[in-house]
Amino acid sequence: MKKTSSAPKMIVEPLHFVGYALGDRISRLKDHHTVLFCFDVGIYGKLKKMFRGSIFSGLTGELYLMDNKTALAGKFGIGSPAAITFLEELAACGIKRFVGIGSAGALHNDINHGDVVLCTGAFSDEGVSEHYPGYSKFSKPARTLISRLASYFKKQKIKFAKGKAWSIDAPYRETKEKLRHFLNKGADVVEMEASAMFNVARFRKVEIANVFIVSDSISDGIWNPMFRAKDIKSKSLSVAGEIILFLSENPP
Question: What is the pLDDT of residue 228?
Fold first, then answer.
């Protein structure tokens, strides 16, 4: 009797879609080792003007292939499903390292608007992670990448805090009860993608890290938005630019 594998076989693997969508164009990505996920479309657009490169399309988001052998990912939507779909495709193309730069909301008063937070782990309150074998309700980024980013931030005198995230893909369903729950677990900020990105990166055996700029707060169950503040926009752009320099100067 033929022995069957216990691991389920997926109907469509990321490589199937990538081959269908790109064909021979996949070779354009072979020299690009790292992708910076830009969750803010405005920041993505400004970064494209700051660094020389070219637009690459055909997948579920847009890539900007920079001359420094790193790439920007933008215009892929929001939330865990959108981020993971693009990450899966890029990993299938051979990308081995990912960093996310985006906004997050403070959960307590020790985190303030404009603070830079280097994510050390994320609690999953989203629906993507559980589809991946071995997923964890609390997932972590790549330890070495986090350590190197922290050292670089200190060297460049970029003030930052290390913190844990509560990842929820239903932003209009945050409650005071959930806020208390994740505060008790040790979460510092809330956002939409980190836990899924960490879980999928572990499954696909690629490096990942996420950096947040605090742009609002739900501390004490009261929403205080500051997304449009000029200092937050400028901080997001400057930190993203520094991350690009770090990644280009420190290949995986």
Answer: 84
